[in-house]
Specification:
single chain; 68 residues; alpha+beta; three-stranded antiparallel β-sheet; globular; DUF1697 domain-containing protein; DUF1697
Length: 68
């Protein structure tokens, strides 16, 4: 099932920065998501998962907190 993840307040630099979207794609794929794609540096993510929306939210939050 296709999912859209919208990260709030993501910036290319500064406090809420994610260094590279390619790294975000990599760690989300490592977490088990499929067909992960990002849209520029906006923090918008497209992915595939059979998990519920709440499960996806929790996993994405945990992965970002632990890895970035």
């Amino acid at each position: 099932m296709n999912k859209i993840v919208l990260l709030r307040g993501v910036m290319p630099t500064g406090k809420n920065s994610i260094p590279k979207m390619s790294y975000l794609v990599e760690i989300l794929q490592d977490a088990g998501f499929r067909a992960v794609k990002t849209y520029i540096q906006s923090g918008n993510i497209l992915l595939q998962s059979n998990q519920s929306d709440d499960e996806v939210k929790q996993i994405v939050h945990h992965v970002i907190e632990e890895k970035i």
